[in-house]
Amino acid sequence: LEGDDGHTYFGTHMDSFGAEGRVSAGALLGTVGDSGNARGAKPHLHFEIYPNGVEAVNPYPTLAAACR
Q1: Helix (H) or strand (E) segment spanning residue 50
Q2: CA angle at residue 59 from 56 to 62, to 5 degrees?
Q3: Which phi and psi angles does 11 have, rounded to 5°?
Q4: pLDDT above 90 coverage of the chain, percent
Q5: How many CB atoms lie within 10 A of CB 32?
Q6: Considering the entire predicted model, what is its pTM?
Q7: Of the candidates 30, 27, 22, which has an alpha carbon nearest to the alpha carbon of residue 3?
Q8: What is the dihedral of CA 39, 43, 36, 53, to 10 degrees?
Q9: How many beta carbons lie within 10 A of that of residue 29, not counting itself?
Q10: CA 7 – CA 35 distance, rounded (Å)
Q11: How far from the centroid of its chain's Cα atoms is residue 32's Cα?
């Protein structure tokens, strides 16, 4: 996903995809799974944030702040 903030939000190992195009908060983007190199593992989401499309950073602080 390309955010309005210039960051890229990247999720992998999904089983299905939901909304396409511009999305709003609460939209179903997909369901977690075990695709790719996670085949056979417990279903999960591998999530990354690339500020300004550069190097990935730890997404936890961003996600934790959004849940407050």
Answers
A1: strand 46-50
A2: 125
A3: -125, 140
A4: 84
A5: 16
A6: 0.78
A7: 22
A8: -160
A9: 15
A10: 24
A11: 10
Structure tokens given for 11: 């999720």
- CA-CA-CA-CA torsion for 51, 52, 54, 58, nearest 10 degrees? 0
Closest CA to 11 of 42, 46, 41: 46
Q: Which two tokens stand for residue 31?
A: 């369901």
pLDDT tops 90 at residue 53: no
Burial class, 28, CB count within 10 angstroms (exposed 0-12 / middle 13-18 / buried 19+): exposed
Structure tokens at 43: 């279903």
Task: Specify the length of the chain in residues.
Answer: 68
Q: Both tokens of residue 30?
A: 């997909």
DSSP code of 57? B
